[in-house]
Design goal:
It is an enzyme of class 1 (oxidoreductase). The chain has 348 residues and is an alpha+beta fold. It has eight helices and 16 strands. It has an eight-stranded mixed beta sheet with strand order 3-4-12-9-14-7-6-5. A six-stranded mixed barrel has the order 1-2-11-10-13-8. It has a two-stranded antiparallel sheet with strand order 15-16.
Length: 348
């Protein structure tokens, strides 16, 4: 699982390998450098926990949390319901408006993934699945229980972050996702096992694990992401351009990562790190991601304590509605956060 105390990324990486990864558009050789993410035990001493979280967000943008307080039964039921849905015939699934397959967004991005995208404000009812046989009647309550659990976890983490950064209003970040009109979503991603057709069937050794990009390179636009996956690897983060860092799965932990809005609200102290998901050649990967988003009208700015004469505001104020519109107008891999940089203040 790892030690909650860690070294900087450059000293925490395992042996370097080269791996051929096929994207939807090309096949290329990439530098692959596995890492162990920081592990934060939420039952630890509070002053230490908040320091570890701040450090992880500054250096990695990602970390794992254990002893997170979300009931194991709630997590198990959510995964079971997800696998049951994705196990249905494709024709039935395609009749569900909440379902997507291969197409990601509206601008031509594709990947080897199928998904359900659910608003946390209006959990899915059985009416959404009229065209699918034998969908459990408790699907909506399962989603609601899981969402409530991870939302509370996200709020706890955001409040620890505020404390660790010295923000006097410790609800400054969490208040935005506690609002009844917060624009948070739950995304269920299923990555079927896919063996790259360019490799020979007999070549199944671990050192030749030919994979495809399931969900392409991007950063998360919201405030904070709480991710849970099964025991199949696939998440890769990029701490350095041109290098991909695979992250080993830990089903007992939640993986937490900084979103674009949190980078803005910490005036660049926390980093929204680019990441992707790749498929496994022989096993299905299931992930459930909670994206904590603010109300559409919320103005995204850093608290006064994060802005000083030595570190002026790096970003222009904007609303989540404005940023979300830009997000949907661009390709998945575009660096949209740069469009809101306050270049004037940086030149003064």
């Amino acid at each position: 699982m790892g030690n909650p105390n860690w070294q900087r990324p450059a000293h925490n990486m395992r042996h370097e390998t080269n791996m051929v990864v096929a994207s939807p558009n090309s096949i290329r050789s990439e530098k692959i450098l596995p890492i162990d993410l920081p592990v934060v035990d939420l039952r630890g001493e509070r002053s230490m926990v908040k320091k570890l979280i701040v450090r992880a967000c500054e250096e990695y943008g990602f970390f794992n949390v254990i002893n997170h307080g979300v009931a194991g039964d709630t997590i198990a039921k959510m995964e079971e319901a997800a696998f049951e849905f994705f196990g249905k015939p494709l024709g039935q699934k395609k009749q569900v408006a909440l379902y997507g397959c291969k197409n990601i967004g509206f601008n031509g991005d594709t990947g080897e993934v199928e998904y359900l995208l659910l608003s946390t404000a209006t959990p899915p009812s059985i009416a959404h699945f009229n065209n699918i046989s034998n969908v459990p009647s408790n699907f909506s309550s399962t989603v609601s229980a899981y969402t409530e659990g991870v939302r509370e976890l996200a709020c706890e983490i955001l409040e620890l972050m505020a404390e660790g950064l010295g923000v006097p209003d410790t609800w400054f970040f969490s208040r935005l996702i506690r609002e009844v009109d917060s624009d948070s979503v739950l995304r269920l991603n299923h990555y079927p096992p896919i063996l790259n057709k360019d490799c020979k069937d007999k070549d199944k050794s671990p050192s030749h694990n030919h994979t495809k990009v399931g969900f392409g390179e991007h950063s998360d636009p919201q405030i904070l992401t709480i991710l849970r996956s099964n025991d199949v690897g696939g998440l890769q983060i990029s701490l350095q351009d041109g290098v991909w860092n695979p992250v080993a799965p830990d089903p007992s932990a939640f993986c937490v990562n900084v979103g674009d809005l949190l980078q803005v609200m910490t005036n660049g102290r926390f980093v929204s790190v680019r990441h992707r998901a790749v498929t496994n050649s022989h096993k299905s990967r299931m992930s459930v991601a909670y994206f904590g988003g603010p109300p559409l009208h919320a103005c995204i700015v850093a608290p006064p304590v994060m802005v000083t004469s030595q570190r002026p505001s790096l970003y222009k104020p904007f609303t989540w509605a404005e940023y979300k519109k830009v997000t949907y107008s661009l390709r998945l891999g575009e660096r949209r956060i740069d469009l809101f940089r306050n270049y004037t203040s940086q030149l003064e």
